[in-house]
TrEMBL record:
The lineage of its organism: Bacteria, Pseudomonadati, Pseudomonadota, Betaproteobacteria, Burkholderiales. InterPro entries: SAM-dependent_MTases_sf. GO terms for molecular function: methyltransferase activity. CDD domains: AdoMet_MTases (cd02440). This is Methyltransferase domain protein. It comes from Caballeronia telluris. Pfam families: Methyltransf_23. GO terms for biological process: methylation. Keywords: Methyltransferase, Transferase. SUPFAM superfamilies: S-adenosyl-L-methionine-dependent methyltransferases.
Length: 229
């Protein structure tokens, strides 16, 4: 079976609902980062994949320095510089650090390392922008359906009972390996962890803002470093 590219899974998905959700998410991310990043600033994208987000951001903000990091995907766009790790990024040198649709795939120690790196590399007035999928509420049904269509399978990793629990917001157990699944991911737990280290300045929902979170598919957090003692 031909491997499905990142764009075919997201902004060029054959599923119109999935395509709409990912394109709206991308538009919101570009808009948020464009407003947050200072003139001639630096944006680092953790889990950048092939660099589509940074490439699109660069088309809107020609003054921004674009840095990506991804250990699993090769860069596609020549204007995006890739860092081997966030360790190589200088302290207090970054205006905006993004982690878009990646935290749901991290093990607890990796999330802690990301937050440590964010606190170190962000400027005092910098921002950490996180987006993650909402795997509870009404969006879970089309998400599971899209996964089944994309994998050409009638089987789902959710049992009917788990699907019902997810739709009404009851936690579902996560698989031990989070790398290839969103099952059971709860943005509410992530928010609690992040808020211990950062000030959560604002939250945004996509693709239907200004409504209860259970009606949307993505959750954005704009986080600011706490004052250093």
């Amino acid at each position: 079976m031909r491997e499905i590219s990142y764009e075919e899974q997201t902004v060029k998905s054959g599923n119109p609902l999935a395509r709409f959700a990912h394109r709206t998410r991308m538009t919101m991310a570009i808009d948020l980062v464009t407003k947050l990043c200072a003139a001639s600033g630096t944006v680092v994208d953790f889990g950048a994949g092939p660099g589509l987000f940074l490439h699109t951001l660069g088309e809107a903000r020609h003054d921004v320095t674009l840095v990506g990091h991804d250990p699993y995907m090769a860069p596609t766009f020549p204007e995006v510089r890739y860092a081997e790790s966030l360790d190589s990024v200088a302290a207090q040198s970054v205006d905006v650090l993004t982690a878009l649709e990646v935290c749901e795939h991290l093990y607890p120690n990796e999330l802690e390392a990301l937050l440590d790196d964010a606190a170190r590399i962000l400027k005092p007035a910098g921002a950490l922008v996180i987006s993650v999928p909402i795997m509870y509420g009404l969006a879970i049904a089309p998400k599971v359906s899209n996964w089944m269509i994309r994998s050409r399978s009638l089987k789902s990793e959710y049992t009917p009972g788990e699907l019902f629990k997810s739709m009404v917001g009851i936690p579902v157990c996560r698989p031990q390996n989070p790398r290839t699944t969103h099952k059971g991911f709860d943005f509410r737990e992530l928010r609690a962890i992040v808020s211990e280290r950062f000030l959560i300045e604002a939250v945004h929902l996509s693709p239907v803002p200004h409504t209860p979170w259970c009606l949307s598919s993505q959750y954005f957090m704009i986080c600011r470093p706490r004052a250093r003692s």
